[in-house]
Amino acid sequence: MNDKLFKLEREMFLMIYGEEELARLDNMMPTCKKIDIFRKDVIKDGEKRFSNPINAKDVEDYVTGIIDFNVTESQWSLIHKYFGEYWNDKLGIGGDIFSNEISEYIYNQISNQKVLINEKNVNTIVDLMLEKIEKDGGFLE
């Protein structure tokens, strides 16, 4: 990442969220998976940002083919809903993704709905969802 851009992003983050939140983020950085979805490559005029869009069913099939625990349809529906909400509303068109923040957001939203689900399972599912998206170079439709 461009050092000047990184410095500017940190300064803006500090102005918006404060020193405590910046320190929390700095402490997480070495331990979380970070995917830069905005600056991964240069896009030429007329070129599509993502060459391989994927759909939610592809992600679900990938995840459920790997996990060794059961997820009900209603649990998957909520995970998908809140993942998409975080992806679209919190990340916008780009930026850095910290998988543990997405997992935490999803788990908290599901817990607020009084639905029982193991937090570790949510973490695993989110990591696999991001892995699939990154692997395919795509985005959720």
Ordered list of secondary-structure elements with their pairings:
Layout: H1 3-17, H2 19-28, E1 34-36, H3 56-66, H4 73-90, E2 96-98, H5 99-112, H6 119-136
Antiparallel strand pairs: 1-2
Write a structural description:
By secondary structure, this protein is mainly alpha-helical. The protein has two domains: about 1-30; about 35-135. It has six helices and two strands. It has helices at about 5-15, 20-30, 55-65, 75-90, 100-110, 120-135, and strands at about 35, 95-100. The chain has a two-stranded antiparallel ribbon with strand order 1-2. The radius of gyration is 16 Å and the shape is globular. The chain starts with a helix and ends in a 5-residue tail after the last helix. Mean pLDDT is about 75; it is low at about 35-45.
